[in-house]
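Ticket 4471: requesting a sanity check on a complex prediction with phosphoenolpyruvate. Repro inputs:
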Amino acid sequence: MNSKTSMLKVLRRVIQEVNGARHLNAALATMVRRIRKAMQTDVCSFYLYDEAVDSLVLMETIGLRTQAVGQVVLPRGEGLVGLVAMRSEPLNLEDAQTHPQFRYFESTGEERYSSFLGIPIIHQRRMLGVLVVQQAEKRRYTDEDEAFLVTMAAQLSGVLAHALATGHVTRPAQAKRQVMFKGVPASPGIAMGEAVVIAPPADLNSVPDLIPSDEAFEVARLKEAIASTREEIRAAGRRLAKRISAQELALFDVYQQMLGESALSTEVEKRIREGQWAPGALADVVRRHVQYLERVDDDYLRERAADVRDLGRRVLSHLQEDTPSRPDVYPDNTVLVGDEISVALLGEVPRDKLMGVVSVRGSSTSHVAIVARAMGIPTVLGMTELPLPRLSGAPVVVDGHRGRLFVRPGPELENHYATLVAEERELSELLEYEQDRPSATTDGYAMPLMVNTGLAVDAIGVLKNRISGVGLYRTEVPFMITERFPGEKEQTRLYRDQLEGFAPLPVVMRTLDIGGDKDLPYFPIDEANPFLGWRGMRVTLDHPEVLMVQLRAMLRASLGLNNLYVLLPMITNVAEVDEALGLLERAIIELGEEGTAVDRPRVGVMIEVPATLYQMDALASRVDFFSVGSNDLTQYLLAVDRNNARVSNLYDALHPALLTALDRLARDAQRLGRPISLCGELAGDPAGALLLMAMGFTGLSMNAPNLPKVRAAIRRVAFSDARNLLDEIIRLDTPEDVHRHLKGRMAQWQLAHLLPPEDD
Ligand code: PEP
Ligand code: MG
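Returned structure tokens:
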């Protein structure tokens, strides 16, 4: 390696090229050439690991014979390359041919090369491939050489993983095949349908690829869009003529030239004739120019990249004026796919056509997730690696249980999921008949079931006979739909609907729980660690004017009904409870002074911050009931962000630590004479519900679609058996043991069909 600066330069350049490449194969070809040159070595090759055959395939090389590409296949563990992959560590040999693992491939002409340095490419513990450099004469690659390749491999791994997942890299002899993406499960269930990609306006990176039905029309509207953009720029130039320098004004001429007949438009037209619709063709061409300009070592030209992008966006926005970013008619089995799917959009697709939702952004607690759950639409969010433009019209399977999306499923997978869908439907029909019966065990133990609400769509009428109340009304949901904080009257009306609708059943209304990832559009909170930041009670105590309005509205709404319970979220300190109680007291007094005498509602705290586990006595002396927010308690106890797909395998509400904490909470509450319910997702899991019942939770609150399975589970076991199960489970050391044991017992009790489909 020549010097540190040149090494950095090459690294940066290669990563930039690889990152910007629309198709990775070409970028890989450039990469091996650049590495060979930078390291002044004879050969640089890239081997791709193919999981299906557990082997490494030569994908790209400079130095070995190109005919060997796709031909040299090494099972993992075999040959030097296979050894690197198996050990997952670098291998640096001065005299490779004397190594016992050396294997000779005639097709590569490899015998001439003495020295070998191989580096594994690993992404999130997954082997993706091996980078190799070789030299004819004996050469000891230095530490610096090795560090350079290790850095290169580490940088490359993320891009490669993404490209492999999205089909942006073509393996030898592999065309359109089934691909899988992982995200955060946001609403359970399985959906099979057609991807309808929702393009946000004027974003060159999310224009879907579409084949035009009328080329001439596409060309004509492109010309129109360009003409409109030219006119727009001309007008802007005229407006600014007096205010900017002649030099700056000259830029407008450059823009005009770029948009001129011979430049951009000719290229875009060519792409249209090759089979792309106008927006897609424009996006392709602009992206290519931008990539090229960003790469050149010239400041002036690099600046122009931004201009080209800006022009591209302008033309695109004109093109999109007459092509809506969403279809007029949705297919019968629509799966909405987008960078971000808004709740408004959910409402736009007819309910009977909307099968599933997936998006790049969002998390299990984002607004759209909450709405999707209430509507029973299988949803996966936070799919950060989704190649939006490539998905339009593709057949897809959404697995909302496990947070997966399968694109172009093969027949085997399709059959598997079709069976699961049929089973789910049959099951819900089967369970329906017992939904009006009590949720009591075979030995007569009654387990009160409640629902989580927050939406106008909640079907109060049907639910009312089947539940013991509302265990959690998330007040932030109506706040998210409005464009400002709703006023006292507006809130009173909303809360009255809930309280009256469910009366005489109790309704637990939680005070505004924003922050974390629940933002109000008109009250943005931007923090580095939002889940450890300004959230829930912390926000509302800092804004008593907001909290007071809410408390007053709740109290007013409860007039004469006497079924209001107030719940305080994100409590960490008893002082917060005292303060909130003080405000509640004040609200009651104020209303009294205004002539509205209201009863003091019962007040509870959410147990979701681990600190509260150790202050149950102090809390119990202040409030009437507890409600465990297991979603947050899990993330805080396990230090796992509940919305981060990368660590979602660590997020587990059945972790032994959680179960021990919950068991202790239930005992504490009993000792202190306070009811304790649980309103996180765990309550809606039939196996979890049995454990919670056995622990002594006095209520389980869940999303309405989970009620049937939980009720069915409770009605099929004896309380004494559930207690025994808990005794067995609580002794286990690992989450895996817990899951295995639970599954075994559920199967033994013939309840396996109530559990989500198996993970593979
Ligand atoms: C929880 O944290 O478990 C809970 C019910 O509240 P949310 O999901 O709204 O944070
Ligand atoms: Mg919570």
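Notes from triage: The radius of gyration is 31 Å. Leaving this open until the requester confirms.
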